[in-house]
Amino acid sequence: MAAFGSAFGGAANVNPNKDVEVPSPPADGVSSLKFSPASNLLVATSWSGQVLCWDVQGNGQAIPKAAITSDKPVLCSAWSVDGSTVFAGGCDNGVKMWNLATNQQQQVAQHAAPIRHCFFIRQMNMLVTGSWDKTVKYWDLRSPNAVHTQQMPERVYAMDVVDELMVVGTADRQIQVFNLSNPGAVYKSLQSPLKYQTRCIACFPDKSGYLLGSIEGRVAVHHVEDNMQGKNFTFKCHRDGNDVYAVNSMSFHPQFGTFVTAGSDGAYNFWDKDSKQRLKAMAKCSMPIPCGDFNRDGSIYAYAVSYDWSRGYSEHNPATAKNHIFLHAPQEAEVKSRNRPASTRR
Question: I want to staple 202 with a disulfide (CB 3.0 to 4.6 A). Which of 70, 122, 211, 255 is the partner?
Answer without folding.
Answer: 211
